[in-house]
């Protein structure tokens, strides 16, 4: 089941790490540590093998992929031995990377993207292509009349005005090309009603938003503990320090606000109320592709006795995100093959701000993911009636 994975932001740190990881797994040069789909509870015949993944993508820059990989190796994000060993494979992927279309109206740019997605699928004889957005975080999109109606949207795209943010333009192109779509970022993407209506019309599955890799992952484990023990969380404050391209992007106040909003939703849903405090994200260039987060939680127990919990998280964002990108591509491809469509709420395990209204508690999300994946595998074996 040869499956295309088209990465929007293909030369960025997360995408490059994902590509190096996929090639290393295909060549047997590394273990699938961090790949959730390789756990016994999720592994099975419905998922395309790593050897079946064909990689391509768009980016706004033309820095050679091998050079990006060497830079990440120098920063300790990927092992240098893998970059050295995968030179031929990286060159093959390089031939499938394209500069993002920038000429003409948004309709022209979407048409160029659709043509490239279609050519990629046909060139490699792919069963399907999953488009995954791993590009820089955008500011939240402002309202526009065309965002709610597919017919009005198509007409508006042909005009001189930029109607859609870039993430949504890619989502539109993916849908029009018949490709499932995954948004690993907090950007607008497929959130707009007109785009979701188009995806539903075409029977396409889609997943998002904002990959859960660090501080929010820990929150989704700790918050249920407080709720289940009936402890009253009085405040929860966090400071995030990160460098790299993502950190530089989030130095922009509008992009920062979009990211913070995504990170904050987990507490209110799990606890049933929003404690005092907030989340701050600061750019520290020296940290490169690594990030640190410090959280302070104050809470009250029996008889109102005040207590506190602190935790610090140090991680490499690209190394945490890349295996999840591969997981999501495999799961979304399997969902498409099974004929599933609409928002893949059972993939909430992977996201800070998941589609629909699923629980944000990691344990509950895990059980839903396992049940869903089991159904996909049973469908392939014939044990599950469809």
From TrEMBL:
This is Myo-inositol-1-phosphate synthase. It comes from Micromonospora nigra. One of its GO terms (biological process) is phospholipid biosynthetic process. GO terms for molecular function: inositol-3-phosphate synthase activity. Residues 214-318 form the Myo-inositol-1-phosphate synthase GAPDH-like domain. Pfam families: Inos-1-P_synth (PF01658), NAD_binding_5 (PF07994). Belongs to the myo-inositol 1-phosphate synthase family. InterPro entries: Myo-inos-1-P_Synthase (IPR002587), Myo-inos-1-P_Synthase_GAPDH (IPR013021), NAD(P)-bd_dom_sf (IPR036291).
């Amino acid at each position: 089941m040869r499956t295309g994975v088209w990465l929007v932001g293909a030369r960025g740190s997360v995408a490059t790490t994902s590509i190096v990881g996929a090639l290393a797994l295909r060549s047997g040069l590394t273990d699938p540590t961090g790949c959730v789909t390789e756990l016994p509870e999720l592994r099975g015949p419905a998922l395309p093998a790593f050897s079946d993944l064909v990689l391509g993508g768009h980016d706004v820059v033309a820095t050679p992929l091998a050079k990006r990989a060497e830079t990440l190796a120098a920063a300790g994000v990927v092992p240098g031995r893998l970059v050295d060993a995968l030179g031929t494979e990286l060159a093959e992927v390089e031939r499938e990377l394209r500069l993002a279309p920038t000429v003409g109206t948004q309709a022209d740019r979407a048409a160029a993207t659709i043509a490239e997605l279609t050519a990629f699928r046909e060139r490699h004889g792919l069963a399907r292509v999953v488009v995954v957005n791993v590009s820089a975080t955008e500011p939240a999109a402002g309202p526009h009349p065309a965002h709610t109606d597919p017919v009005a949207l198509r007409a508006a795209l042909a005009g001189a005005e930029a109607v859609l943010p870039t993430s949504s333009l890619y989502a539109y192109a993916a849908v029009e090309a018949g490709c499932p779509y995954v948004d690993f970022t907090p950007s607008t993407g497929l959130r707009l009603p007109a785009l979701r209506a188009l995806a539903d019309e075409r029977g396409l599955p889609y997943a998002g938003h904002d990959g859960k890799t660090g501080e929010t992952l820990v929150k989704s484990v700790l918050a249920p503990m407080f709720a289940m023990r009936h402890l009253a969380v009085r405040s929860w404050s966090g400071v995030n320090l990160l460098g790299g391209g993502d950190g530089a992007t989030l130095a922009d106040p509008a992009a920062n606000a979009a990211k913070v909003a995504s990170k904050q939703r987990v507490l209110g849903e799990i606890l049933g109320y929003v404690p005092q405090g907030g989340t701050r994200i600061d750019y520290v260039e020296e940290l490169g592709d690594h990030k640190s987060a410090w959280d302070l939680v104050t809470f009250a127990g029996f008889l109102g006795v005040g207590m506190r919990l602190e935790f610090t998280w140090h991680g490499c964002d690209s190394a945490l995100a890349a295996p999840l990108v591969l997981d999501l591509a495999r799961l979304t491809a399997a969902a498409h093959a099974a004929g599933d469509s609409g928002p893949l709420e059972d993939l909430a395990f992977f996201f800070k701000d998941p589609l629909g209204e699923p629980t944000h508690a990691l344990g509950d999300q895990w059980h839903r993911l396992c049940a869903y994946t089991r159904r996909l595998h049973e469908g392939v074996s014939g044990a599950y009636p469809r």
